[in-house]
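Protein folding task:
====================
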Amino acid sequence: MAAEQPSNGIRKGGTVFFRALVTIAGLVAIWQGIVAIFRPPHFMLPGIDRVLAALAARPELWQVHAVTTASETLIGLAAGAAAGTALALLMSFLPATRRLVLPSLVVSQAFPVFAIAPLLVLWFGYGIGSKIVMATIAIFFPVASAFHDGLVRTDRGLLDITRLHRARHWQEVALIRVPSALPSLVSGLRLAAVYAPIGALIGEWVGASSGLGYAMLLANGRAQTDVVFACLLLIAAMSLALRALVDIATRNVAPWAPETA
């Protein structure tokens, strides 16, 4: 099968982004319908007009706070994806480490993210460092787990061919297991792209001086619900853009990976 052209990858990534926008538009229409019919107090559920007005009146939300959260998210996504990929490869190249690393990886997910967030702020400070670590932790497990599953579920027929030719274990992993597991890695990255902003937000909620999570806390304490919803809209747009970016980037790495949306 011929490799997919980059323009096709960009077109499909744009299609996913467009579908998500259509879905969000439908949800916004339902939201506005509820506001128009039931007329709840503005501090409980503001209309989309008030939220957009808050975005226009508070340019620092998207000029400062959104930029801070996006920076934390992008760095955390890159770090978490690299760490998760490296750990999955380590367990594949050195099978003996799997018995030690895999249970530790599973146990690490038993701790709620909110529980360790104060510790990360204590260790790495109130700056961008603790938020990047939090985003990395949120992204690390989906990538490592998905890629590892792909590596261990390689087609047995392909593995039999390598053993027939007496290939070394590292050759089996590098030439057969890794290419076969790339679609699984892509799926993990797509999932991580959605989780990435969550990790950064949790870190900002615990302690920060900038970011959308910090802006939401301040607005919530002042009953400025329209500002809270404005931050949520920015986070949703960020997640959509990040997911589309991952789709476009990974389309060239694993063009045979199945569509997920």
